[in-house]
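Protocol step 4 of 5: obtain the predicted structure for the target chain.
Materials: sequence only (see below). No template structures provided, no constraints applied. The aim of this step is simply to have a reference model before the mutagenesis design in step 5. Sequence pasted as it appears in the construct record:
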Amino acid sequence: MIKALSLSRSFGATVAVKDLSFEIKEGEVFALLGPNGAGKTTTIRMLTGLITPTSGTCSIEGMDVTRNPMQVHRNVGVQPEVPGHYDTLTAQRNLEFYGKLFGVKQPQLGLRIRDLLQSFDLWDRRSDAVQTYSKGMKQKLAIIRALLHDPEYVFLDEPMSGLDPVASKTVKDFILDLKAKGKTVVLSTHNLDDADQLSDRVAVIQGGLIALDTPDNLRANLFKRTIVFHLKAADDGVVAKLRALPFVRSAERSENKLVLEVENPEEENPQVVDLLVKAGYRVQFVGEVRHSLEEVYLKLVKPSQEAPQ
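Step 4 output (structure tokens):
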């Protein structure tokens, strides 16, 4: 388990993170969301011991990150926002160097490097200097570097940044594979669709914690459930019939579509369909309006002036 308790971090007079508390369960994918300057990168750096908090504590498996950095780092992999490779060295040499720092010995290190480079489609470029790599290739190499020692806790700061759709899918599939293996993944991302697809829970931060829950629970708490009934033909008379139902919060018509807000669609949709059919209306299909995580995010986050991350 990862635990942050009243974490705060200031850079001079600028407060980047203020009184941030949460727990991350073992084996979950946990996303940090927020605008530029919200403190996402700063939070990841504190959780992984790369910087010390101004106040508060963070621990991994009960071990204080600030007091026991070496022990914590053995079980933590970090892909930073800025990759920071040795650009004049080859990808192979970069990974061999970092693998040794992580304490991974041959022949395991060589096998691990080969498997990861192949998984991320970089094996054929292993002998090329990193300075010849594209931004997306460097990003993938940084993710590989974070995974070399097979850590239980993986921190990914904007992992899909600079990646084309194929490479992005490769990274997303790998994150899901890590979850399937019981690894804990903490990621920071501006891509809310990715966060929605991958995350068990999301924390929306803007200096402090604004909201923390599953994407579905955040949707349910912020938006009423809206059902759309598509009819062969509709008129205003049907709207009056629907508004008379006790569980219908609102009912509107848009041409041949009926838009209803209800409490419990699973229980109440059949009653609506029965009423429509008995009244002579032909139901073509029924669908629910699914609010995106982006809509949730925009409802929670207020525009602010950018600050250090």
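Step 4 remarks: The radius of gyration is 24 Å. The chain has a mean pLDDT of 92.
Proceed to step 5.
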